[in-house]
Amino acid sequence: MEQYRVVETDNYGGDYPDEKWRSEWTTKQEAERIAEEWNEKNGNGEGARYAKVVKFPYELQPGFRP
User: Measured between alpha carbons, how far is 36 from 25 in angstroms, rounded to an integer?
Assistant: First the structure.
C-alpha cells in the first residue's frame, strides 16, 4: 500500500523551504483532506506557507542554517 504524508512548505519556491510534517503516513485521500483543511485555515495558498501531499519516501527540505 502506498503511503502519503502532508508537508508544510514555502509557498514562494525559496532555496530553504524549512519543511515540517503536518500528518503521519496515511492514505492519499486522507492526506489530501488534511492538506486542504490546513490550507483553508492558513490563507488558501496565498500566504508564505502551504501544505502539500507527498508520497513515501520523502525527505524534508531544510531551512536556512548559517
Answer: 16
- Give dist(CA 58, CA 41) in Å, integer: 24
Taking residues 14-18, what's their average pLDDT?
92
Peptide bond into 57 cis (omega under 30): yes
Please, what is the Cα angle at 5 between 9 and 31, to 5 degrees? 100
Whether the per-residue pLDDT at 17 is higher than 90: the answer is: yes
pTM of the model: 0.89
pLDDT band at 47 (very low <50, low <70, confident <90, very high): confident
- Number of neighbouring beta carbons within 10 Å of residue 35: 22
Q: Where are the domains positioned within the chain?
A: 4-55
Q: Phi-psi bin for 18: left (phi > 0), alpha (psi -120 to 50), beta?
A: left
